[in-house]
């Protein structure tokens, strides 16, 4: 190994372990609030380490190094670190977003009694996510995949005394386990065929797959199983229902988990293993991503919770990334993952700052309605005045999500839809994919325009707006909430990704994750970005025009339209109701049936075996006591009597010895006498 590569590996391990070690150490600090400072510092150091690797040490060569870990039969697994431009940049993204989130959390969570637990979970989550990023082996990746699921469960259900939060954490955990079952099945099939789970080795083996291969069915099935893991983690149809409920967790955790890291883990894994998805599996991935993007955007239209709008938006944008991965363009998927990480994390933190402000109002005003909700956008309005940086930053990031020119979101969405157009050239139903993605782009502009207007425009819809005496978020004490938002807003512009604000080459950005099996150089037609911009303008205009036409007053902030179409959006297409009425009762009945089988049948068999064992034990005890022990005692008794008799024969009197000799001679003579 080259010296430079050795240094990179050492730094990777340091940047990987520091968040975990400091997170664990923070639990034992006497001053709980210092845990935030400790973990924030650890994440900042991790970000600095990854920055040094990315900008100064990494020379573009792929580095794979590690040590043996498990040897079970033919299964040989090594703890291998896989460093290339994709993994190093992803590690930098994860640690950077985690640093900003932890910095924001120190203020946002300052009054939380269990703040040390929160930061411990944050450090553990970052460690587990970096484990996915660096893993070169599918089995090792799955180990950290599960650890990420555990960490997200702890963060989503952080306020576990709140029933809805506990339920949301459990729902996320169960839904992810469904996808993970497919992941495990896929790994099992791959190992049975190739006797290897190394991603780089599998990539070379897959080059030899063809329709004539006798294992082609199982190879395709393995790819489908691996994709199921991504469906659960990245909240794809029909497993998308857990993500909106996961908003019960702390808002900064939502920014980390549901914007840049956990939900993006599925996309990252797909980009790493894009060679697996051959045959009809690639079509299936594209269909799932397209459906997810559309239904999530539609469900966001009538949501009133500021965080739920962003949650559905996350699901929709993940659908775009899944479509890109399904078309074979891992570079486009990763490009949109990166741009989305910046503007969506910023939007979540912005929503957190707004919720923080609304909670201040809630605690200071006594005449608020009983149904007041600090996260309900209908109680907001006019919040552009509380902090100009927050307003401008939120506007920039909203524009990026809506794919308005001069934003990073415009560049990455153009890349995704461009590859959807390439895919559509295959004929059949494929032409619907770019069309639906363009429609979804218009819906995105509509619901984000609605959110932006409800939150920032007009006047406050609370009754006593002038009675609020608390200082705004512009005070120095609250600037800790604004600073991360400002940074993420700047990164949501086009400049970090391309000099040209209207086009970026994702292949040059992620050279190790290009289209499979070969790079595709394709320039999008001029009508594509023009159409996307027109649909965005229509969506924004329709949202703002509709809100200006209908006044949402303080007297009726809970007004909801009874239009069936909009009710369908508000109820999230009734997916939760469908699951609660069909799958959940069936699962509960199956569980109760299995419980009865366990208690009546299995436990009965075990009890019978136990009773039989006791009876056999008692019989054995009797045999041992009266037969075995009796025989032993009899032998001992006979031996004792014999010894007593022979002892008397050895009296030391010579006359007796002569007598015994004479008797013996006579006895022998009688025996041999004929």
UniProtKB/TrEMBL annotation:
Instruction: Spell out the protein name for this chain.
Output: NADH-quinone oxidoreductase subunit L
Name the membrane topology term. Answer: Multi-pass membrane protein
- Biological source species: Mangrovivirga halotolerans
Q: Where is the NADH:quinone oxidoreductase/Mrp antiporter transmembrane domain?
A: 135-421
PANTHER family reported in the protein's UniProt record? NADH-UBIQUINONE OXIDOREDUCTASE CHAIN 5 (PTHR42829)
In short, the EC number is 1.6.5.-
Q: Gene3D superfamilies from the entry?
A: 1.20.5.2700
InterPro entries, per the entry: NADHpl_OxRdtase_5_subgr, ND/Mrp_TM, NU5C-like, Proton_antipo_N
* Annotated keywords: Membrane, Oxidoreductase, Transmembrane, Transmembrane helix
Its EC top class is oxidoreductase
Looking up Pfam families in the UniProt record yields: Proton_antipo_M, Proton_antipo_N
């Amino acid at each position: 190994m080259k010296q430079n590569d050795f240094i990179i590996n050492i730094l990777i391990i340091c940047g990987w372990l520091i968040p975990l070690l400091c997170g664990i150490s923070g639990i034992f600090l006497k001053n709980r609030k210092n845990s935030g400072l400790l973990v924030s510092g650890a994440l900042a150091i991790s970000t600095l380490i990854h920055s040094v690797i990315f900008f100064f040490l990494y020379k573009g060569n792929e580095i794979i190094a590690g040590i043996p870990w498990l040897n079970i039969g033919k299964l040989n697994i090594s703890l291998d670190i896989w460093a290339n431009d994709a993994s190093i940049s992803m590690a930098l993204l994860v640690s950077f977003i985690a640093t900003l989130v932890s910095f924001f959390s120190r203020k946002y969570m300052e009054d939380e009694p269990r703040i040390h637990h929160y930061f411990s979970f944050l450090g553990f989550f970052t460690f587990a996510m970096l484990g996915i990023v660096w893993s070169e082996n599918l089995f090792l990746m799955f180990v950290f995949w599960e650890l990420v699921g555990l960490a997200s469960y702890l963060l989503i259900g952080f306020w576990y005394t709140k029933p809805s939060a506990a339920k949301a954490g459990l729902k996320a955990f169960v839904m992810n386990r469904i996808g993970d079952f497919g992941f495990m099945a896929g790994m099992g099939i791959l190992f049975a065929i190739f006797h290897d789970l190394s991603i780089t080795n599998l990539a070379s083996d897959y080059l030899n797959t063809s329709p004539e291969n006798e294992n082609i069915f199982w190879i395709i099935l393995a790819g489908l199983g691996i994709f199921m893991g991504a469906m659960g983690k990245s909240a794809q149809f029909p497993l998308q229902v857990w993500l909106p409920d996961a908003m019960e967790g702390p808002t900064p955790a939502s920014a980390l988990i549901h914007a840049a890291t956990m939900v993006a883990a599925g996309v990252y894994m797909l980009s790493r293993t894009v060679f697996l998805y051959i045959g009809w599996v690639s079509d299936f991935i594209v269909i799932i991503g397209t459906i997810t993007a559309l239904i999530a955007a539609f469900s966001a239209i009538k949501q009133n919770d500021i965080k739920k709008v962003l949650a559905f938006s996350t699901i929709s944008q993940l659908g775009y990334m899944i479509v890109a991965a399904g078309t074979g363009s891992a570079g486009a998927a990763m490009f949109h993952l990166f741009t989305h990480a910046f503007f969506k994390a910023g939007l979540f933190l912005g929503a957190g700052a707004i919720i923080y402000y609304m909670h201040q109002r809630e605690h200071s005003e006594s005449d608020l309605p009983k149904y007041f909700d600090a996260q309900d956008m209908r109680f907001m309005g006019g919040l552009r005045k509380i902090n100009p940086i927050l307003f401008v930053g939120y506007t920039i990031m909203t524009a990026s999500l809506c794919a308005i020119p001069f934003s990073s979101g415009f560049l990455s969405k153009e890349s995704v839809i461009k590859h959807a157009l390439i895919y559509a050239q295959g004929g059949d139903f494929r032409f619907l994919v770019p069309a639906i993605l363009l429609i979804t782009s218009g819906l995105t502009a509509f619901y984000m325009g609605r959110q932006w207007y409800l939150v920032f425009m007009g006047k406050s819809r609370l009754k006593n707006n002038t009675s609020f005496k608390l200082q705004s978020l512009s005070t120095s004490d609250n600037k800790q909430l604004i600073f991360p938002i400002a940074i993420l807003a700047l990164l949501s512009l086009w400049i970090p990704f391309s000099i040209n604000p209207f086009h970026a080459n994702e292949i040059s950005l992620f050279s190790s994750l290009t289209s499979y099996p070969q790079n595709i150089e394709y320039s999008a037609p001029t009508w594509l970005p023009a159409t996307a911009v027109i649909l965005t303008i229509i969506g924004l205009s329709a949202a703002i025009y509709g809100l200006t036409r209908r006044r949402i007053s303080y007297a009726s902030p809970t007004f909801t339209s009874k239009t069936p179409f909009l009710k369908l959006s508000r109820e999230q297409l009734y997916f939760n109701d469908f699951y609660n009425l069909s799958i959940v009762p069936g699962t509960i009945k199956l569980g109760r049936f299995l419980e009865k089988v366990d208690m009546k049948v299995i436990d009965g068999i075990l009890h019978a075996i136990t009773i039989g064992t006791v009876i056999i034990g008692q019989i054995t005890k009797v045999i041992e006591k009266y037969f075995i022990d009796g025989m032993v005692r009899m032998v001992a008794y006979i031996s004792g009597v014999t010894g007593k008799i022979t002892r008397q024969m050895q009296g030391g009197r010579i006359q007796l010895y002569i007598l015994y000799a004479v008797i013996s001679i006579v006895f022998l003579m009688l025996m041999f006498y004929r």
